[in-house]
Backbone:
């Protein structure tokens, strides 16, 4: 039995495609036929889905997620996280290694691979850069490779020792592994819970100065340039460096200049960092849900981030989906755990805050949410061609909906967007030969 999507708006940035058409997928999940001149007719037993003009796009991919398993399954599991991903239009995610225990060996990678085989979305594993993410001893990057690991990160912290960071970049380059940096000088950020500025002073909260991020990025980019210039190791690939959850205008400018200098540098932004600023935290009654790292930017930095999206400096949108239990957020702000969930609100926020405000086009949004994250991680490009696997997301760009407790598939509810009305929603995915729709 095949599946036919009719009356679709086919959008695929990798192929510069944006047209009306239809698609037939065989019972093995392989694209069999695409038509841009009319609807494809169905045969006996075919399932026909009329999209009525909705967007059929490559499945979204989130390159920065936390599913908490193993070790903190009370917050999220591989199963509930995957359900949240599918509901948000994601057919794949990359999991950060700061679980308990930290995924710093092939054993941890194998655990995720084994327990995710039957889930509806692909789970890529990002290995820790250092043992237990302590920033002292490098993890076995070479062994990671045999398990399909394509990136390393000590997300949640950053290697403070410059020599260790130099060795991490050099070691990763030997295997063409991407280095993902959670940029934070922990000595500058120590004890801080929000952006340092007028709002933090007014609230009496200890702030995190914006340079805690940019200083770390500046250091790493100098290392990257030096390693490229000297080509250490002979057979070493050119180092590749990615800034996670970028949050300041200065950081964006550092990346912009590094790209202009020819360095292999990319960066991502989260929906909460382009939708909110520290003023929103100041006004909030549930302040715990506005506490994250990096902290929400100042209004000035928010403007710089939007410009980075507008001019193409920012390469990807990633959720940094970070589930927490109710008691870890409904507490005094200085005791709240850092982070929020984001898989199920990411697309709506992107369309509402960026596409509808003409910051970026819908095609560019899909590129940021799907095409580019896969490219940055070295994953296979999704193509709309006969013979290719169907990996799809269905988007209703006109759907107006309200974020509510009942709308979530995630195990957690820690979001600052509860009760907010958004425009644009994923209404289905097709992946692994199966259709999951509303």
Residues:
């Amino acid at each position: 039995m095949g599946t036919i999507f009719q009356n679709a708006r086919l959008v695929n940035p990798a192929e510069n495609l944006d047209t009306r058409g239809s698609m037939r997928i065989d019972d093995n999940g392989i694209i069999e036929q695409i038509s841009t001149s009319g609807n494809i007719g169905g045969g006996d037993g075919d399932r026909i889905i009329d999209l009525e003009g909705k967007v059929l796009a490559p499945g979204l991919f989130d390159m920065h997620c936390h599913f908490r398993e193993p070790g903190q399954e009370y917050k999220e599991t591989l199963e509930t996280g995957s359900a949240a991903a599918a509901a948000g239009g994601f057919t794949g995610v990359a999991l950060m290694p700061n679980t308990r225990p930290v995924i710093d060996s092939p054993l941890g990678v194998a655990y995720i691979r084994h327990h995710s085989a039957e889930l509806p979305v692909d789970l890529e594993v990002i290995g820790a850069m250092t043992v237990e993410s302590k920033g002292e001893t490098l993890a076995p990057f070479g062994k990671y490779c045999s398990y399909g690991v394509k990136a390393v990160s000590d997300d949640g912290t950053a290697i403070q020792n410059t020599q260790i960071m130099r060795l991490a970049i050099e070691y990763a380059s030997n295997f063409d592994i991407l280095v993902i940096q959670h940029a934070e000088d922990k000595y500058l950020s120590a004890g801080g819970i929000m952006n340092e500025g007028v709002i933090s002073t007014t609230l009496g909260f200890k702030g995190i100065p914006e340079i805690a991020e940019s200083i770390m990025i500046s250091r790493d980019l100098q290392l990257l340039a030096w390693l490229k210039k000297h080509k250490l190791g002979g057979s070493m690939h050119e180092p590749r460096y990615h800034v996670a959850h970028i949050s300041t205008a200065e950081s964006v400018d550092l990346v912009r200049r590094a790209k202009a200098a020819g360095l292999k540098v990319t960066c991502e932004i989260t929906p909460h960092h382009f939708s909110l600023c520290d003023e929103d935290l100041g006004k909030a009654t549930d302040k715990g849900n506005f506490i994250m790292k990096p902290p929400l930017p100042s209004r000035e930095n928010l403007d710089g981030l939007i410009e980075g999206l507008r001019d193409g400096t920012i390469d990807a949108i990633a959720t940094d989906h970070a589930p927490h239990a109710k008691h870890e957020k409904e507490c005094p702000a200085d005791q709240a755990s850092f982070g929020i969930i984001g898989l199920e609100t990411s697309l709506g926020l992107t369309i509402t805050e960026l596409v509808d405000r003409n910051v970026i086009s819908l095609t560019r949004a899909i590129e940021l949410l799907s095409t580019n994250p896969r490219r940055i991680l070295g994953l296979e490009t999704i193509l709309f061609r006969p013979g290719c696997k169907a990996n799809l997301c269905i988007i209703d760009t006109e759907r107006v909906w309200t974020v509510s407790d009942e709308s979530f598939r995630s195990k957690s509810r820690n979001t600052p967007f509860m009760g907010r009305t958004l425009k644009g929603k994923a209404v289905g995915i097709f992946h692994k030969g199966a259709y999951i729709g509303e």
Remarks:
- The chain has a mean pLDDT of 96.
- Residues 58-377 form a domain with the TIM Barrel fold (CATH 3.20.20.140).
- The CA atoms of residues 288 and 330 lie 6 Å apart.
